[in-house]
Write a structure and sequence with these properties.
Blueprint lengths: L24 H19 L10 H9 L6 H13 L7 E3 L1 H12 L1 E4 L2 E5 L6 E6 L4 H5 L6 E5 L2 E2 L5 H8 L6 E7 L9 E6 L1 E4 L3 E8 L2 E8 L6 H14 L4 E5 L8 H11 L4 E6 L5 E5 L10 E5 L6 H11 L4 E4 L7 E7 L5 E10 L15 E2 L17 H13 L2
Parallel strand pairs: 11-12, 12-15, 15-16, 16-19
Antiparallel strand pairs: 1-18, 2-9, 3-4, 4-5, 5-6, 5-7, 7-8, 10-11, 13-14, 13-18, 17-18
Helix pairs in contact: 1-2, 1-3, 7-8, 8-9
Length: 405
């Protein structure tokens, strides 16, 4: 999936058809703009709408005579851009279908989760999808995408970047990357062949470490399969006699908000999981419900690609003293989006709330600091994760010895 902005609460709103007999085309288009305006008006997290008169904005855009749906889409994108929020955006029918498919666990493309750095405007890789063409090519979390097929990404929206990255299986795209610490004066070039990607979000194994049966679980994203797969993994590992767990959230860009909560409950028997606050400042707290599947010691691995729902899970476990976090600071996305469907197959994503960890830490643009910071001397291959070659995993094993001797 190109873009990780669905990492958060997904609420599908169903709308009645706008068109009716006897109305002119431009009236239908005006109605469409009005529907999008109304969705934002009801639910957008910032009550000032970026310090502008939202009713005046409505007059500016609803009263135009649009000649085509494409022209209408352009106007809606312009209207939403006035909020200065890259996560609130319009998806045309193709983009909307791609979003729905990716959360179900299957997608076609290069397999990059991307975001716009609000501070710099750079297009950042949150994480490559595990096993995807981009992952196999060697693209890493926090790489900056500076070119797509030789077109500079500076000034592009998230949608425009996603559109250029998306394509049919078998087609190719050339991606120019700038990487922290690179010595080459020119962008690194990656020619990637798009493919169909099946996202299996959970992988696991059990091994003997220092005389203890240690379970390693890697959770790559919170898609529609994650909750079931995680429950099966924990139950299977418990049946094999697991005594302690390492949960790997490195490079996990998030996904479905509800999946994050459900998985947190598998590890945490009681306590607050997360607080959310809407634009009125009204807070809602989500709590565990005594349904944990294991009480065994737990350490969580994080890095700069650990984002959104992954941060909800990591923050819940850290603040409730259920787990220690090892690795590097997380990405820092503390916003929740809602996805609304529209009659023509398009959709609009709106930032509707902020979230805080159980101890009321606002992680947006800040991230979560691990209990023990451990940096990797060099990027790891997928096969090296959770092995003696993985310095962060080995630090977790050492921490078990210190805290559970």
């Amino acid at each position: 999936m190109a873009g990780w902005i669905l990492a958060g609460l997904v609420a599908l709103g169903l709308w009645a058809p706008l068109a009716s007999a006897g109305v002119t085309d431009y009236t239908v288009e005006q109605h469409y703009v009005g529907e999008v305006w109304q969705i934002v008006h009801r639910s957008y997290v910032d009550p000032t709408f970026n310090h502008q008169n939202w009713f005046k904005v409505r007059q500016q855009y609803v009263n135009r005579r649009y000649q085509s749906r494409e022209e209408t889409y352009g106007a809606v994108r312009e209207m939403l851009a006035s909020l200065d929020d890259p996560f609130t955006r319009l998806l045309d029918p193709e983009q909307y279908a791609a979003i729905q498919t990716s959360t179900s666990g299957e997608l076609t493309g290069v397999g990059l989760q991307i975001a716009i750095d609000i501070t710099t405007g750079h297009v950042l890789v949150v994480s490559p999808v595990e096993g995807s063409p981009a992952d196999r090519a060697g693209i890493l979390p926090l790489d900056r995408i500076v070119e797509i097929d030789h077109a500079p990404t500076e000034g592009m929206t998230l949608d425009q970047c996603a559109e250029r990255l998306r394509g049919e299986a078998g087609s190719e795209v050339l991606i120019g990357i700038e990487r922290e610490g690179q010595s080459a004066p020119q962008p690194l070039q990656f020619l990637i062949r798009r493919d169909r990607i099946m996202v299996n979000p959970v992988s696991y194994k059990i091994s003997d470490q220092d005389g203890h049966k240690t379970a390693y679980i890697r959770l790559s994203q919170f898609n529609g399969n994650a909750v079931t797969d995680m429950a099966q993994a924990i139950r299977g590992l418990e049946a094999q006699g697991a005594e302690r767990y390492v949960l790997d959230l490195r490079g996990n860009p998030g996904g479905l908000f509800d999946a994050g909560l459900a998985i947190a409950k598998m590890w945490l028997d009681d306590g607050v999981l997360v607080h959310t606050a809407d634009r009125q400042g009204i807070q809602e707290s989500y709590t565990a419900d005594h349904s944990a599947l294991t009480q065994d010691p737990l350490i969580v691995l994080t890095n700069g690609g650990t984002a959104s729902s992954s941060e909800i899970l990591g923050g819940a476990l850290q603040d409730n003293h259920r787990a220690l976090l090892v690795g590097t600071r997380t990405f820092g996305k503390g916003l929740i989006q809602s996805l609304h469907s529209l009659p023509d197959g398009s959709g609009v994503i709106v930032t509707v709330a902020r979230y805080e960890t159980p101890a009321h830490h606002d992680i947006n643009r800040r991230g979560i600091t691990p209990d023990r910071e451990v940096r990797l001397p060099a990027p790891l291959t997928r096969a090296q994760l959770g092995t003696p070659e993985d310095a962060q995993y080995q630090a977790a094993i050492a921490l078990f010895a210190e805290t559970h001797s």
